[in-house]
Amino acid sequence: MAATKQLPAAAVFLLLYLAIRVRSASSALHEIHRGFSVTHDSSYTEFQPLLADPTGVFSLGFLRVDSSQLDLAVLHLPSTTALWRAQASRSVLWSASVSLSFNGGLVLSDSATGMLWSTATDAGERVVLLNTSNLQVVGSDAVLWQSFDFPSDTLVQDQNFTSTAALFSRDQRFSMRLGPSYLALFMELGGGAAPVMYWKHSALEAKGQIVPDEGPIYARVEADGFLGMYQKATLVDVYSFDSFNRRIAGLRRLTLESDGNLRAHYWNGSIWIQDIQAIADSERCEIPTTCGAYGLCKPDDTRCGCLDDSVQEGCLPASSGDFCGSGGSEFGVLRRKGVDLTSKDLMASQKVASLEECESACERNCSCWGAIYNNASGFCYQLDYPIQTLVEADDRKEGYFKVRTEGGSGGGEAVKRARVALLTVGSLVLSGTMAFGAYRVWSRRRMQASVDEEGLAPGPYKTLNSASFRSIELSNSLSDRK
Ligand SMILES: *[C@@H]1O[C@H](CO)[C@@H](O)[C@H](O)[C@H]1NC(C)=O
Ligand SMILES: *[C@@H]1O[C@H](CO)[C@@H](O)[C@H](O)[C@H]1NC(C)=O
Ligand SMILES: *[C@@H]1O[C@H](CO)[C@@H](O)[C@H](O)[C@H]1NC(C)=O
Ligand SMILES: *[C@@H]1O[C@H](CO)[C@@H](O)[C@H](O)[C@H]1NC(C)=O
Ligand SMILES: *[C@@H]1O[C@H](CO)[C@@H](O)[C@H](O)[C@H]1NC(C)=O
Prior knowledge:
Elements: H1 2-27, E1 32-33, E2 36-39, E3 47-52, E4 58-65, E5 69-76, E6 81-85, E7 98-102, E8 106-110, E9 114-118, E10 126-129, E11 135-138, E12 143-146, E13 154-156, E14 160-161, E15 167-168, E16 174-178, E17 182-187, E18 196-202, E19 217-222, E20 226-231, E21 234-240, E22 252-256, E23 262-267, E24 272-277, E25 295-298, E26 303-306, E27 331-337, E28 339-340, E29 350-351, H2 355-364, E30 370-374, E31 379-383, E32 390-392, E33 397-404, H3 414-422, E34 426-428, H4 432-453, H5 461-464, H6 477-481
Parallel strand pairs: 25-32, 27-34
Antiparallel strand pairs: 1-10, 2-7, 3-4, 4-5, 5-6, 7-8, 8-9, 10-11, 11-12, 13-22, 14-19, 15-16, 16-17, 17-18, 19-20, 20-21, 22-23, 23-24, 25-26, 27-33, 28-32, 29-31, 30-31, 30-33
One 2-acetamido-2-deoxy-beta-D-glucopyranose (NAG) binds at residues 134, 148, 160.
Signal peptide: 1-27
Protein name: Apple domain-containing protein
Domain Apple: 324-405
Protein backbone atom coordinates (compact mmCIF):
# COMPACT_ATOMS: atom_id res chain seq x y z
CA MET A 1 0.00 0.00 0.00
CA ALA A 2 2.65 2.48 1.10
CA ALA A 3 5.01 1.37 -1.65
CA THR A 4 2.48 1.99 -4.40
CA LYS A 5 1.90 5.47 -3.05
CA GLN A 6 5.58 6.28 -2.92
CA LEU A 7 6.41 5.04 -6.37
CA PRO A 8 4.75 7.79 -8.42
CA ALA A 9 6.19 10.42 -6.07
CA ALA A 10 9.67 9.02 -6.57
CA ALA A 11 9.15 8.92 -10.34
CA VAL A 12 7.94 12.51 -10.44
CA PHE A 13 10.88 13.57 -8.34
CA LEU A 14 13.30 11.79 -10.63
CA LEU A 15 11.77 13.30 -13.76
CA LEU A 16 11.83 16.76 -12.24
CA TYR A 17 15.41 16.23 -11.19
CA LEU A 18 16.44 15.06 -14.65
CA ALA A 19 14.53 17.87 -16.34
CA ILE A 20 16.27 20.44 -14.20
CA ARG A 21 19.67 18.86 -14.68
CA VAL A 22 19.39 18.66 -18.44
CA ARG A 23 18.05 22.13 -18.97
CA SER A 24 20.31 23.81 -16.45
CA ALA A 25 23.38 22.34 -18.08
CA SER A 26 22.49 23.90 -21.38
CA SER A 27 20.95 27.22 -20.50
CA ALA A 28 22.23 28.82 -17.32
CA LEU A 29 24.79 31.60 -17.27
CA HIS A 30 27.66 31.86 -14.80
CA GLU A 31 27.54 35.62 -14.48
CA ILE A 32 24.93 38.28 -15.12
CA HIS A 33 25.98 41.70 -16.46
CA ARG A 34 24.26 45.06 -16.81
CA GLY A 35 21.62 45.09 -19.51
CA PHE A 36 20.52 41.53 -18.68
CA SER A 37 16.83 40.82 -18.97
CA VAL A 38 14.99 37.55 -19.26
CA THR A 39 11.29 36.82 -19.43
CA HIS A 40 9.83 33.75 -17.80
CA ASP A 41 9.26 30.93 -20.25
CA SER A 42 6.35 28.90 -18.93
CA SER A 43 7.28 25.91 -21.06
CA TYR A 44 9.55 25.05 -18.13
CA THR A 45 7.28 23.09 -15.87
CA GLU A 46 8.91 23.56 -12.45
CA PHE A 47 12.09 25.59 -12.62
CA GLN A 48 13.69 27.84 -15.21
CA PRO A 49 17.42 28.15 -14.44
CA LEU A 50 19.03 31.53 -15.05
CA LEU A 51 22.36 31.56 -13.27
CA ALA A 52 24.60 28.66 -12.19
CA ASP A 53 27.32 28.46 -9.55
CA PRO A 54 30.81 27.27 -10.62
CA THR A 55 30.21 23.74 -9.33
CA GLY A 56 26.82 23.24 -11.00
CA VAL A 57 25.24 22.32 -7.65
CA PHE A 58 23.21 25.50 -7.20
CA SER A 59 21.09 27.50 -9.57
CA LEU A 60 19.16 30.77 -9.48
CA GLY A 61 15.95 30.69 -11.44
CA PHE A 62 12.19 31.01 -11.61
CA LEU A 63 10.68 28.37 -9.33
CA ARG A 64 7.13 27.13 -9.31
CA VAL A 65 5.83 27.19 -5.73
CA ASP A 66 2.55 26.18 -4.11
CA SER A 67 1.59 24.49 -7.41
CA SER A 68 0.66 27.64 -9.34
CA GLN A 69 2.83 30.53 -8.11
CA LEU A 70 6.19 31.83 -9.22
CA ASP A 71 9.11 32.99 -7.12
CA LEU A 72 12.78 33.67 -7.72
CA ALA A 73 14.84 31.06 -5.91
CA VAL A 74 18.26 29.52 -5.40
CA LEU A 75 17.90 25.76 -5.73
CA HIS A 76 20.15 22.97 -4.53
CA LEU A 77 19.87 21.05 -7.80
CA PRO A 78 20.60 17.49 -6.60
CA SER A 79 17.68 17.69 -4.17
CA THR A 80 15.60 20.42 -5.89
CA THR A 81 15.39 22.11 -2.47
CA ALA A 82 14.97 25.89 -2.45
CA LEU A 83 17.67 27.24 -0.13
CA TRP A 84 16.69 30.86 -0.69
CA ARG A 85 13.63 32.57 -2.06
CA ALA A 86 13.11 36.20 -2.98
CA GLN A 87 9.61 36.09 -1.48
CA ALA A 88 8.04 38.56 -3.88
CA SER A 89 5.87 41.20 -2.26
CA ARG A 90 2.79 39.95 -4.09
CA SER A 91 2.05 36.44 -5.21
CA VAL A 92 2.23 35.97 -8.94
CA LEU A 93 1.06 33.12 -11.14
CA TRP A 94 3.51 30.80 -12.86
CA SER A 95 1.77 31.67 -16.12
CA ALA A 96 2.21 35.44 -15.63
CA SER A 97 4.59 37.44 -17.77
CA VAL A 98 7.38 37.87 -15.23
CA SER A 99 10.86 39.07 -16.00
CA LEU A 100 14.17 39.40 -14.20
CA SER A 101 16.48 42.22 -15.19
CA PHE A 102 19.78 43.65 -14.04
CA ASN A 103 20.90 47.23 -14.44
CA GLY A 104 22.83 47.78 -11.23
CA GLY A 105 20.32 45.82 -9.19
CA LEU A 106 18.29 42.69 -9.73
CA VAL A 107 14.63 43.47 -10.35
CA LEU A 108 11.80 40.95 -10.59
CA SER A 109 8.74 42.41 -12.24
CA ASP A 110 5.41 41.45 -13.68
CA SER A 111 4.37 43.12 -16.93
CA ALA A 112 0.87 43.67 -15.55
CA THR A 113 1.51 44.83 -11.99
CA GLY A 114 5.08 46.13 -11.98
CA MET A 115 7.91 45.47 -9.56
CA LEU A 116 7.59 42.40 -7.34
CA TRP A 117 11.01 42.36 -5.71
CA SER A 118 14.43 43.98 -6.06
CA THR A 119 17.84 44.07 -4.44
CA ALA A 120 17.45 47.87 -4.11
CA THR A 121 20.95 48.49 -5.43
CA ASP A 122 21.92 50.56 -8.46
CA ALA A 123 25.72 50.40 -8.65
CA GLY A 124 26.06 46.67 -9.21
CA GLU A 125 28.22 45.56 -12.12
CA ARG A 126 27.57 41.85 -12.10
CA VAL A 127 25.66 39.13 -10.33
CA VAL A 128 27.26 35.87 -9.32
CA LEU A 129 26.16 32.73 -7.55
CA LEU A 130 28.94 31.44 -5.30
CA ASN A 131 29.67 27.79 -4.60
CA THR A 132 28.13 28.31 -1.13
CA SER A 133 24.74 29.15 -2.75
CA ASN A 134 25.21 32.82 -1.84
CA LEU A 135 23.85 35.11 -4.58
CA GLN A 136 25.78 38.36 -4.78
CA VAL A 137 25.42 41.70 -6.53
CA VAL A 138 28.98 42.91 -6.90
CA GLY A 139 30.00 46.55 -7.51
CA SER A 140 33.36 47.88 -8.63
CA ASP A 141 35.07 47.10 -5.33
CA ALA A 142 32.54 45.61 -2.96
CA VAL A 143 29.65 43.22 -2.53
CA LEU A 144 26.57 45.47 -2.56
CA TRP A 145 23.94 42.86 -1.75
CA GLN A 146 23.95 39.15 -0.91
CA SER A 147 21.17 36.64 -0.46
CA PHE A 148 22.92 35.37 2.71
CA ASP A 149 21.79 38.60 4.42
CA PHE A 150 18.14 37.97 3.49
CA PRO A 151 17.40 34.36 4.36
CA SER A 152 13.94 32.93 3.79
CA ASP A 153 13.36 29.72 5.77
CA THR A 154 16.86 28.23 5.55
CA LEU A 155 20.42 28.94 6.62
CA VAL A 156 23.18 27.06 4.86
CA GLN A 157 26.65 26.25 6.06
CA ASP A 158 28.83 29.37 6.47
CA GLN A 159 25.91 31.78 6.25
CA ASN A 160 26.00 34.40 9.01
CA PHE A 161 22.67 34.86 10.74
CA THR A 162 22.58 38.26 12.43
CA SER A 163 20.12 40.04 14.67
CA THR A 164 18.99 42.15 11.72
CA ALA A 165 17.75 39.06 9.88
CA ALA A 166 14.92 36.66 10.67
CA LEU A 167 14.07 33.24 9.35
CA PHE A 168 10.41 32.67 8.47
CA SER A 169 8.79 29.32 7.88
CA ARG A 170 7.38 28.96 4.38
CA ASP A 171 3.86 29.57 5.60
CA GLN A 172 5.11 32.64 7.54
CA ARG A 173 3.56 31.36 10.76
CA PHE A 174 6.87 31.00 12.60
CA SER A 175 10.10 32.93 12.83
CA MET A 176 13.58 32.54 14.24
CA ARG A 177 15.48 35.53 15.60
CA LEU A 178 18.56 36.27 17.65
CA GLY A 179 18.32 38.07 20.96
CA PRO A 180 21.18 39.70 22.87
CA SER A 181 22.38 36.31 24.18
CA TYR A 182 20.06 33.69 22.72
CA LEU A 183 18.41 32.21 19.67
CA ALA A 184 14.63 31.83 19.76
CA LEU A 185 11.61 30.59 17.83
CA PHE A 186 8.42 32.62 17.69
CA MET A 187 4.84 32.21 16.62
CA GLU A 188 3.89 35.10 14.35
CA LEU A 189 0.51 36.69 14.96
CA GLY A 190 0.41 39.16 12.09
CA GLY A 191 -1.31 42.53 12.15
CA GLY A 192 1.60 44.19 13.92
CA ALA A 193 1.20 42.07 17.08
CA ALA A 194 4.39 41.07 18.87
CA PRO A 195 5.40 37.49 18.07
CA VAL A 196 5.20 34.91 20.86
CA MET A 197 8.35 33.09 21.87
CA TYR A 198 8.03 29.32 22.33
CA TRP A 199 11.59 28.04 22.23
CA LYS A 200 14.77 29.64 23.45
CA HIS A 201 18.36 28.51 23.33
CA SER A 202 20.63 30.67 25.47
CA ALA A 203 24.33 30.90 24.77
CA LEU A 204 26.14 28.73 27.30
CA GLU A 205 29.25 30.91 27.13
CA ALA A 206 31.41 27.90 27.97
CA LYS A 207 34.24 28.86 25.66
CA GLY A 208 33.82 32.62 25.61
CA GLN A 209 31.75 35.26 27.36
CA ILE A 210 29.34 37.70 25.77
CA VAL A 211 30.69 41.13 26.59
CA PRO A 212 28.13 43.94 26.80
CA ASP A 213 28.74 46.74 24.27
CA GLU A 214 31.00 44.51 22.21
CA GLY A 215 28.36 44.27 19.50
CA PRO A 216 25.54 41.86 18.72
CA ILE A 217 25.95 38.11 18.50
CA TYR A 218 25.49 36.18 15.27
CA ALA A 219 25.04 32.50 14.45
CA ARG A 220 26.45 30.27 11.77
CA VAL A 221 26.07 26.62 10.75
CA GLU A 222 29.56 25.13 10.75
CA ALA A 223 30.95 22.31 8.63
CA ASP A 224 31.85 20.41 11.82
CA GLY A 225 28.17 19.91 12.59
CA PHE A 226 27.01 22.62 14.94
CA LEU A 227 25.34 25.98 15.03
CA GLY A 228 27.85 28.36 16.53
CA MET A 229 26.94 31.62 18.21
CA TYR A 230 29.62 34.26 18.08
CA GLN A 231 30.35 37.74 19.30
CA LYS A 232 32.99 39.20 16.98
CA ALA A 233 35.32 36.21 16.56
CA THR A 234 34.57 34.71 19.98
CA LEU A 235 32.60 31.47 20.03
CA VAL A 236 30.01 31.89 22.80
CA ASP A 237 27.90 28.81 22.15
CA VAL A 238 28.01 25.45 20.40
CA TYR A 239 24.61 23.99 19.57
CA SER A 240 25.77 20.64 18.31
CA PHE A 241 24.00 18.42 15.80
CA ASP A 242 23.94 14.62 15.88
CA SER A 243 26.78 14.44 13.38
CA PHE A 244 28.95 16.83 15.42
CA ASN A 245 32.64 16.21 14.65
CA ARG A 246 31.84 13.28 12.37
CA ARG A 247 33.58 14.81 9.35
CA ILE A 248 30.54 14.93 7.11
CA ALA A 249 31.48 16.46 3.78
CA GLY A 250 27.97 17.13 2.49
CA LEU A 251 26.21 20.48 2.51
CA ARG A 252 24.48 21.37 5.77
CA ARG A 253 21.35 23.43 6.18
CA LEU A 254 19.12 24.57 9.03
CA THR A 255 15.46 25.13 8.15
CA LEU A 256 12.54 26.54 10.10
CA GLU A 257 9.81 24.23 8.89
CA SER A 258 6.10 24.87 8.60
CA ASP A 259 5.31 22.75 11.68
CA GLY A 260 7.20 25.29 13.79
CA ASN A 261 10.23 23.08 14.35
CA LEU A 262 13.80 23.96 13.49
CA ARG A 263 15.72 21.13 11.83
CA ALA A 264 19.27 20.65 10.63
CA HIS A 265 20.03 18.35 7.71
CA TYR A 266 23.07 17.32 5.74
CA TRP A 267 23.23 16.07 2.17
CA ASN A 268 24.70 12.56 2.05
CA GLY A 269 25.02 12.54 -1.73
CA SER A 270 21.57 11.22 -2.41
CA ILE A 271 19.21 12.36 0.35
CA TRP A 272 18.97 14.91 3.16
CA ILE A 273 19.72 13.26 6.50
CA GLN A 274 18.06 14.89 9.50
CA ASP A 275 20.73 15.93 11.96
CA ILE A 276 18.80 17.53 14.78
CA GLN A 277 15.43 19.03 15.56
CA ALA A 278 15.13 21.78 18.14
CA ILE A 279 11.94 20.38 19.63
CA ALA A 280 11.93 16.60 20.07
CA ASP A 281 8.90 14.61 18.93
CA SER A 282 8.08 13.93 22.58
CA GLU A 283 8.02 17.68 23.25
CA ARG A 284 5.77 18.69 20.40
CA CYS A 285 3.27 20.12 22.88
CA GLU A 286 5.69 23.01 23.27
CA ILE A 287 4.86 24.28 19.82
CA PRO A 288 1.82 26.47 20.47
CA THR A 289 0.07 25.51 17.24
CA THR A 290 0.47 21.74 17.59
CA CYS A 291 -3.17 21.16 18.48
CA GLY A 292 -4.49 24.39 16.94
CA ALA A 293 -6.53 27.17 18.52
CA TYR A 294 -8.08 26.22 21.89
CA GLY A 295 -6.31 22.88 21.59
CA LEU A 296 -5.08 20.79 24.47
CA CYS A 297 -1.94 18.72 24.12
CA LYS A 298 -1.17 15.72 26.28
CA PRO A 299 2.53 15.76 27.03
CA ASP A 300 3.06 12.00 27.44
CA ASP A 301 2.26 11.10 23.89
CA THR A 302 1.59 14.54 22.31
CA ARG A 303 -1.94 13.58 21.47
CA CYS A 304 -4.34 16.42 20.76
CA GLY A 305 -7.69 17.24 22.29
CA CYS A 306 -9.65 20.44 22.77
CA LEU A 307 -9.92 22.77 25.75
CA ASP A 308 -13.69 22.45 25.54
CA ASP A 309 -13.57 18.69 24.90
CA SER A 310 -15.27 19.12 21.57
CA VAL A 311 -14.58 16.47 18.99
CA GLN A 312 -14.19 18.68 15.99
CA GLU A 313 -11.01 19.08 14.08
CA GLY A 314 -9.77 22.54 15.01
CA CYS A 315 -11.63 22.86 18.35
CA LEU A 316 -13.02 26.39 18.77
CA PRO A 317 -12.37 28.76 15.87
CA ALA A 318 -9.11 30.63 15.72
CA SER A 319 -9.37 34.35 16.42
CA SER A 320 -7.26 37.41 15.91
CA GLY A 321 -6.85 40.88 17.33
CA ASP A 322 -8.06 41.69 20.83
CA PHE A 323 -11.17 42.92 22.64
CA CYS A 324 -10.19 46.59 22.66
CA GLY A 325 -11.96 49.15 20.50
CA SER A 326 -13.76 48.34 17.29
CA GLY A 327 -12.64 44.72 16.96
CA GLY A 328 -15.57 43.58 19.09
CA SER A 329 -15.49 43.49 22.86
CA GLU A 330 -17.91 40.67 23.56
CA PHE A 331 -16.68 37.33 24.70
CA GLY A 332 -17.75 34.13 26.33
CA VAL A 333 -15.64 32.42 28.94
CA LEU A 334 -14.25 28.93 29.01
CA ARG A 335 -12.69 27.64 32.22
CA ARG A 336 -10.68 24.49 32.58
CA LYS A 337 -8.65 22.95 35.34
CA GLY A 338 -5.49 21.04 34.70
CA VAL A 339 -4.06 23.12 31.88
CA ASP A 340 -0.82 25.01 31.61
CA LEU A 341 1.15 27.14 29.19
CA THR A 342 3.59 25.38 26.94
CA SER A 343 6.42 27.82 27.51
CA LYS A 344 5.65 29.45 30.83
CA ASP A 345 9.25 30.22 31.60
CA LEU A 346 9.25 32.53 28.60
CA MET A 347 6.25 34.53 29.79
CA ALA A 348 5.70 37.39 32.18
CA SER A 349 3.76 36.59 35.33
CA GLN A 350 2.58 38.27 38.47
CA LYS A 351 1.85 36.97 41.93
CA VAL A 352 -1.79 37.30 42.95
CA ALA A 353 -3.81 36.35 46.01
CA SER A 354 -6.36 34.11 44.34
CA LEU A 355 -7.75 32.57 41.20
CA GLU A 356 -10.48 35.21 41.22
CA GLU A 357 -7.92 37.98 41.19
CA CYS A 358 -6.09 36.37 38.30
CA GLU A 359 -9.28 35.95 36.29
CA SER A 360 -10.63 39.40 36.94
CA ALA A 361 -7.34 41.04 35.93
CA CYS A 362 -7.71 39.31 32.58
CA GLU A 363 -11.43 39.94 32.32
CA ARG A 364 -10.97 43.68 32.74
CA ASN A 365 -8.06 43.91 30.36
CA CYS A 366 -9.18 44.09 26.75
CA SER A 367 -5.82 42.91 25.42
CA CYS A 368 -5.95 39.77 27.56
CA TRP A 369 -7.18 36.56 25.92
CA GLY A 370 -6.81 34.28 28.88
CA ALA A 371 -4.97 33.55 32.10
CA ILE A 372 -3.46 30.59 33.84
CA TYR A 373 -3.43 30.58 37.61
CA ASN A 374 -1.09 28.30 39.50
CA ASN A 375 -2.69 27.57 42.83
CA ALA A 376 0.54 26.14 44.19
CA SER A 377 2.76 29.14 43.49
CA GLY A 378 0.16 31.90 43.30
CA PHE A 379 1.43 33.05 39.93
CA CYS A 380 -0.91 34.41 37.30
CA TYR A 381 0.11 34.28 33.65
CA GLN A 382 -1.81 36.46 31.24
CA LEU A 383 -1.97 35.59 27.56
CA ASP A 384 -2.10 38.64 25.35
CA TYR A 385 -2.61 36.70 22.12
CA PRO A 386 -5.44 34.54 20.77
CA ILE A 387 -5.53 31.21 22.56
CA GLN A 388 -3.50 28.47 20.94
CA THR A 389 -2.56 25.03 22.20
CA LEU A 390 -2.20 24.54 25.93
CA VAL A 391 -0.72 21.57 27.64
CA GLU A 392 -2.38 19.22 30.07
CA ALA A 393 -1.14 19.66 33.63
CA ASP A 394 -2.08 18.86 37.20
CA ASP A 395 -5.23 20.34 38.69
CA ARG A 396 -3.51 23.14 40.52
CA LYS A 397 -3.13 24.99 37.21
CA GLU A 398 -6.39 26.60 36.25
CA GLY A 399 -7.21 28.21 32.95
CA TYR A 400 -9.55 31.05 32.08
CA PHE A 401 -10.09 31.72 28.38
CA LYS A 402 -12.04 34.28 26.45
CA VAL A 403 -13.93 33.05 23.40
CA ARG A 404 -15.18 35.47 20.77
CA THR A 405 -18.93 35.45 20.55
CA GLU A 406 -21.10 36.12 17.56
CA GLY A 407 -20.72 39.63 16.21
CA GLY A 408 -17.07 39.79 17.18
CA SER A 409 -14.51 40.02 14.43
CA GLY A 410 -12.14 37.23 13.54
CA GLY A 411 -13.43 33.68 13.77
CA GLY A 412 -14.15 31.36 10.92
CA GLU A 413 -17.08 30.42 8.79
CA ALA A 414 -20.69 30.76 9.86
CA VAL A 415 -20.87 27.18 11.07
CA LYS A 416 -18.13 27.73 13.56
CA ARG A 417 -19.64 30.98 14.77
CA ALA A 418 -22.86 29.19 15.48
CA ARG A 419 -20.88 26.79 17.60
CA VAL A 420 -19.37 29.54 19.69
CA ALA A 421 -22.81 30.94 20.39
CA LEU A 422 -23.75 27.60 21.90
CA LEU A 423 -20.89 27.74 24.31
CA THR A 424 -22.20 28.41 27.75
CA VAL A 425 -20.06 29.80 30.48
CA GLY A 426 -19.06 27.00 32.73
CA SER A 427 -16.41 25.52 34.87
CA LEU A 428 -14.93 22.13 34.38
CA VAL A 429 -13.99 20.26 37.44
CA LEU A 430 -11.97 17.27 36.46
CA SER A 431 -9.80 15.07 38.53
CA GLY A 432 -6.50 14.00 37.06
CA THR A 433 -7.81 10.58 36.21
CA MET A 434 -10.90 12.00 34.60
CA ALA A 435 -8.76 14.23 32.44
CA PHE A 436 -6.77 11.22 31.38
CA GLY A 437 -9.99 9.39 30.63
CA ALA A 438 -11.05 12.30 28.47
CA TYR A 439 -8.12 11.68 26.20
CA ARG A 440 -8.99 8.08 25.78
CA VAL A 441 -12.55 9.05 25.03
CA TRP A 442 -11.34 11.72 22.71
CA SER A 443 -9.26 9.43 20.60
CA ARG A 444 -12.10 6.98 20.28
CA ARG A 445 -14.43 9.76 19.27
CA ARG A 446 -11.90 11.01 16.80
CA MET A 447 -11.71 7.60 15.22
CA GLN A 448 -15.46 7.55 15.09
CA ALA A 449 -15.54 11.01 13.57
CA SER A 450 -13.23 9.98 10.77
CA VAL A 451 -15.35 6.96 10.05
CA ASP A 452 -18.32 9.25 9.90
CA GLU A 453 -16.62 11.60 7.51
CA GLU A 454 -16.06 8.78 5.11
CA GLY A 455 -19.77 8.23 4.97
CA LEU A 456 -19.92 5.13 7.13
CA ALA A 457 -22.16 4.58 10.13
CA PRO A 458 -22.78 7.69 12.21
CA GLY A 459 -21.31 7.24 15.66
CA PRO A 460 -22.92 7.46 19.06
CA TYR A 461 -21.10 10.66 20.02
CA LYS A 462 -23.44 11.51 22.81
CA THR A 463 -22.97 8.28 24.62
CA LEU A 464 -19.24 8.68 24.50
CA ASN A 465 -19.56 12.16 25.88
CA SER A 466 -18.90 11.52 29.54
CA ALA A 467 -21.27 13.10 32.02
CA SER A 468 -18.42 14.87 33.74
CA PHE A 469 -17.97 17.18 30.77
CA ARG A 470 -21.51 18.36 30.74
CA SER A 471 -20.83 21.84 32.05
CA ILE A 472 -19.99 22.94 28.54
CA GLU A 473 -22.76 22.04 26.19
CA LEU A 474 -21.97 21.92 22.55
CA SER A 475 -24.93 19.79 21.77
CA ASN A 476 -25.33 20.64 18.12
CA SER A 477 -21.68 20.84 17.29
CA LEU A 478 -21.58 17.70 15.28
CA SER A 479 -24.69 18.23 13.25
CA ASP A 480 -23.50 21.79 12.59
CA ARG A 481 -20.56 20.41 10.75
CA LYS A 482 -22.65 18.76 8.10
C1 LIG B 1 34.39 27.33 -3.37
O1 LIG B 1 35.12 28.44 -3.79
C2 LIG B 1 36.23 28.77 -2.96
C3 LIG B 1 36.89 30.01 -3.50
O2 LIG B 1 35.96 30.93 -3.94
C4 LIG B 1 37.21 27.61 -2.93
O3 LIG B 1 38.26 27.91 -2.04
C5 LIG B 1 36.50 26.36 -2.48
O4 LIG B 1 37.36 25.26 -2.54
C6 LIG B 1 35.30 26.10 -3.34
N1 LIG B 1 34.56 24.98 -2.82
C7 LIG B 1 34.08 24.03 -3.61
C8 LIG B 1 33.32 22.93 -2.91
O5 LIG B 1 34.19 24.04 -4.81
C1 LIG C 1 30.54 36.01 8.27
O1 LIG C 1 31.08 36.75 9.35
C2 LIG C 1 32.48 36.64 9.44
C3 LIG C 1 32.93 37.34 10.70
O2 LIG C 1 32.33 38.59 10.80
C4 LIG C 1 33.11 37.24 8.19
O3 LIG C 1 34.52 37.12 8.24
C5 LIG C 1 32.59 36.51 6.97
O4 LIG C 1 33.06 37.10 5.79
C6 LIG C 1 31.07 36.52 6.95
N1 LIG C 1 30.60 35.67 5.87
C7 LIG C 1 29.72 36.06 4.96
C8 LIG C 1 29.37 35.08 3.92
O5 LIG C 1 29.19 37.16 4.97
C1 LIG D 1 22.47 8.20 1.91
O1 LIG D 1 21.60 7.62 2.86
C2 LIG D 1 20.73 6.64 2.33
C3 LIG D 1 19.78 6.20 3.41
O2 LIG D 1 20.45 5.99 4.62
C4 LIG D 1 21.57 5.48 1.82
O3 LIG D 1 20.72 4.50 1.26
C5 LIG D 1 22.52 6.00 0.76
O4 LIG D 1 23.37 4.96 0.35
C6 LIG D 1 23.35 7.14 1.31
N1 LIG D 1 24.10 7.70 0.21
C7 LIG D 1 25.42 7.84 0.27
C8 LIG D 1 26.08 8.38 -0.94
O5 LIG D 1 26.04 7.54 1.27
C1 LIG E 1 -3.24 44.14 30.03
O1 LIG E 1 -2.64 42.94 29.57
C2 LIG E 1 -1.45 43.14 28.87
C3 LIG E 1 -1.01 41.82 28.32
O2 LIG E 1 -1.08 40.81 29.25
C4 LIG E 1 -0.41 43.77 29.78
O3 LIG E 1 0.77 44.00 29.07
C5 LIG E 1 -0.96 45.08 30.33
O4 LIG E 1 -0.06 45.61 31.25
C6 LIG E 1 -2.30 44.85 30.99
N1 LIG E 1 -2.88 46.13 31.37
C7 LIG E 1 -3.29 46.37 32.61
C8 LIG E 1 -3.87 47.73 32.84
O5 LIG E 1 -3.19 45.54 33.50
C1 LIG F 1 -5.57 25.96 46.30
O1 LIG F 1 -4.78 26.33 47.40
C2 LIG F 1 -5.50 26.49 48.59
C3 LIG F 1 -4.56 27.00 49.63
O2 LIG F 1 -3.29 26.50 49.49
C4 LIG F 1 -6.14 25.16 48.99
O3 LIG F 1 -6.90 25.33 50.16
C5 LIG F 1 -7.03 24.72 47.86
O4 LIG F 1 -7.57 23.45 48.15
C6 LIG F 1 -6.27 24.67 46.57
N1 LIG F 1 -7.17 24.35 45.50
C7 LIG F 1 -6.92 23.41 44.62
C8 LIG F 1 -7.97 23.21 43.58
O5 LIG F 1 -5.91 22.74 44.63
